[in-house]
Amino acid sequence: MADGNTKHWFSTGSGLIEFELTWDQANIGYHQGQCDSDIAELRKVPEIAEILGKIDKDTLRKELDEYGAWDEDELKDHDANLNRILWLACGYIVDQYLSEHEDD
Asked: Is 69 among the domain residues?
């Protein structure tokens, strides 16, 4: 299993948004069931809050629009978009690691 403190990289498809999370952080934010409260707690971590605070709202909205999961009205909410990108990053890191180590 991954070292919980090892950082893993996430990038949107265009590469305009990228950052790192630890394995433990990714697992907190992505799991079966509702993740909303866990994402809210992750956003309180100073390092994560700093990362998210640097993301341009228009860039984020455009990046999330590429996923096709949210409509134009939903994407107007920058705070919700920050939750979405953090959840997507957590999911990417967890899924990527598990797919690379499925035979371990």
From this structure: yes
pLDDT value at residue 1: 54
Q: 61 in a domain, yes or no?
A: yes
- pLDDT by residue (tens digit) across 35-92? 999 999 999 999 999 999 999 999 999 999 999 999 999 999 999 999 999 999 999 9
Domains held by the chain: number:
1
**Are the beta carbons of 30 and 11 closer than 8 angstroms?**
no
Assess contact for 81 and 61: CB atoms under 8 A: yes
Q: What is the reported pTM?
A: 0.91
Q: Secondary structure of 37-88 in the HEC alphabet? A: HHHHHHCCCHHHHHHHHCCCHHHHHHHHHCCCCCCCCHHHCHHHHHHHHHHH
The answer to the question of residue 57 being in a domain is yes
Q: Is residue 1 part of a domain?
A: no
DSSP 90: H
Q: At residue 18, what are phi and psi to the nearest 5 degrees?
A: -150, 145
Range of the domain at 84: 7-100
